[in-house]
Amino acid sequence: MKDLVIVWLAAIATLAIYSILYKENPIYRFFEHVFIGLATGYSIARLWSDVLLPSWWQPMLGGQWYWIFALVVGGMFYTIYLPRYAWMSRLVMTVLMGMAAGIAFKGFATLYIPQLAATFRPIFSPAPPYLLVNNLLIIITVVAVMTYFFFSFEHKSRAVRGTASLGRWLLMIAFGAIFGSTVMARVALLTYRLWFLVHDVPSRGIPHL
Amino acid sequence: MASVTPAEIERQRRQSRIIYGVLAALMVLFLLFEMKLPFVVGPQALGLYDAVGKVRDDQLVLLSVNWEAGTVGESMPQTEALIQHLFLAKKRFAIFGIDPIGPGFAQRIAERQAERLGKTYGVDWVNWGYKPGQLAMFLGLARDIPGTIKQDSIRKADLTTLPVMRGIKSARDLGLILEVTSTDSIEIWIQYFHGVYGTPVGYAPTAVMVPEAYPYLNAKQLVGMLAGIKGAAEYADLLERNWDVEMTWEYPPRRAMNAVAIAHVLIVLLIVLGNYQYFTRHRRRAERT
Question: Using a CB-CB distance cutoff of 8 angstroms, which residues of chain A are in contact with residue B264?
Fold first, then answer.
């Protein structure tokens, strides 16, 4: 019975959300707010049960009294709303910013330096021809796109103008690929809801089937 | 520029509704009836599949699940494919997320598959639950896993007491990190786990994020990738070809991919038709003037 109610509730919610495709309506608005409210409520409950309870509340009650300072430091963020004590929020923010900047430097090196090295590709080697074509394509794309974004001098020379123009075309192709992927993602999400309506609802939502 | 009349807007709305209707009808048809459309497994899915096989018995696979209800259509089949492979290949794994909702979804899938394949919670798999994605947490996790996670999410047991965590102390004991996500959480694993400890990282993003992942694949910062629902379908195909066990799906990715493919054919046709109409109208107008 419980499963039956869940399936039908989900079916009604799905149809209500897709009703926006016909036109804007209050039923769509209602279910949109229910969805956001549920996600937020669930997140708060998880935050308490998986994070605050085992990592802060239980140790504090178990004798590690100094965890109370986490609440004090966390509370300092909210002094931003009190002009007289706003300097306290800047203290914790400064510490966090300094830490983030230091860690980000290390992260930048491990993230981008291998990618820079990976653009240095051989174009004359015993590798299969398709790999050499791929390598050549990567090198041409990197040079052309970087030329397009090079603003330190005016693009007067015909060679620079041509390379920059090629860079612009290659960027457009990349944007096209990104847009194509976006369409695929949206269609995939629609497919799941259609599967739910034509498969799950008849198999789980109608008792005699 | 000529203003658009209310009648024109209404006509466009009617056309949109017809397109939505035709699209939905075609997709339902391809979902209900199993059809064998041509299908090729790409090198990215194959790379990820091979990487799972290479994990040593003394290592743990970290299944990082950061997706929400909005992307179930892509992320759930990816997660289900990976969990089935991990169970079949007898690889110990831990579910974890920096999104509060993802680990709950993955736990439901793992429980269903564990019951079917005879796997035990705490021995073959564990749910670490949700932890906020702060940098400090990741740095702590890399150095001291039990000290950062402390207890599992289901039994609330001390992590060090669970057999699945035997010998697992830091990032060096992780054989593979699998990130199933609808957010940009992949960078952190590459920066602080692959970049520092050399831990292999596999990626299962939604299709919208796929183009941005190619620089990571190109630089070998990722061992492989499941590109949205297409990646899940490829992985399902690999599993069905390589394992003599029946795979079960809450949402079968091969059938879903058929529906997505037919939707793409329709969209491409409509783009061609729309452009043809635009250019012929333009030419006729030019001829008149």
Answer: 183-184, 187
Place of tokens 């140790």: A59
CB contact under 8 A, B260 and A54: no
User: What average pLDDT values come out for chain A (209 residues) when binned by 10 residues?
Assistant: 88 93 92 92 89 90 93 94 93 90 85 90 79 89 93 86 95 93 92 93 78
DSSP codes, B22-61 = HHHHHHHHHHHS---------HHHHHHHHHHHT--TT-EE
Going along chain B from its start, the domains and CATH numbers come out as 43-255 (3.40.50)
Q: Give the CA radius of gyration of chain A.
A: 28
User: Would the CA dihedral through A113, A181, B30, B276 be positive or negative?
Assistant: negative
Which helix (H) or strand (E) covers residue B210, if one does?
A: helix B210-218
**Cβ-contact B47, B80 below 8 angstroms:** no
Cα end-to-end span (Å), chain A: 14
What pTM was computed for the model?
0.88
Q: Which residues of B touch A106 (CB under 8 A)?
A: 191-192
